[in-house]
UniProtKB/TrEMBL annotation:
This is Phosphatidylglycerol--prolipoprotein diacylglyceryl transferase. Pathway: Protein modification; lipoprotein biosynthesis (diacylglyceryl transfer). It is found in: Cell membrane. NCBIfam families: lgt. A 1,2-diacyl-sn-glycero-3-phospho-(1'-sn-glycerol) binds at residue 131. It comes from the Bacteria. The lineage of its organism: Bacteria, Bacillati, Bacillota, Bacilli, Bacillales. GO terms for cellular component: plasma membrane. The gene is lgt. Its EC number is 2.5.1.145. It comes from Paenibacillus lutrae. It holds the Pfam family LGT. One of its GO terms (molecular function) is phosphatidylglycerol-prolipoprotein diacylglyceryl transferase activity. It is a multi-pass membrane protein. GO terms for biological process: lipoprotein biosynthetic process.
Amino acid sequence: MINPIAFSLGPISVHWYGIILGTAALVGLLLAIREGKRFNMEPDFFMDLLLIGVPSAIIAARIYYVAFQWENYKNNFADVFKIWEGGIAIYGALIGAIIGALFYVRRKGVSFWRIADICAPGLIVGQMIGRWGNFINQEAHGGPVQESFLRGTLYLPDWIVNQMNIQGTFYHPTFLYESLWNLAGLLLLFWLRRRPFLRAGELFMSYFIWYSLGRFYIEGLRTDSLDFTGPEWLASLMNSLWSPMSLLFGEAGAMTYGGNIRISQLLALLIIFAAIVIIVVRRKVVPGLAKYSDPIERKTVKPVSANTGK
């Protein structure tokens, strides 16, 4: 097992998880700054956006998780703030980051869609790198598998296989599946953003479609999913959509809380549908919809002045 503590400075222990997440944010920022230069956007714009987006994402990720696990927190409210004990959700983080970005770009007088497009590769590369923090902590893994599957079928190196051995049982390295899926998505976004047919906002929506498609199938292997008990027809539909995954990876992971529908899987399907609808509707409804390659215009934001009574 890899020691989750990278090094210590006196009584302060620095964890690999924090280093990896910090690296993920930095790489995402650098990608956004580099692409922003093509549109004459200052690096400070994206640095300030990161300073707003990261806290917003962490707070929303925790609220999202606690909301679906309120029974475990309502009598221990102090535990709500113990995020170092685990319990944050990526979809909640995305919601928080988007809300923070909306307020920021509005103050700057810049189109949210244009900035979201520039940041899309940074988001997916951040998730790609961030999943390795789960690997270090031996969390967010899938159900049990044979060691021979990891070595003989997936041909994984010893350092990954050994880390997937948790108290004598080997597990699906779902962190790796999602990280590789996000790497493919990053390359796809790089290709898409140079296509002449791409309109403003569509790279951002493409990110959501790609990420959510992978999340739907990978989530089915996990054993720590937030879930609930829903109608049988919906559970049957989702199981049918997921069933091709079983041909490659075996049975789905056990439901953590005894429900029949994984929240992240359902949300992934809804996001895919919503993103496609948004792309189609914006192309039909918005007149003169800007292309991705068009210059980014800034609107003049009038300062709020005090009423002098004159």
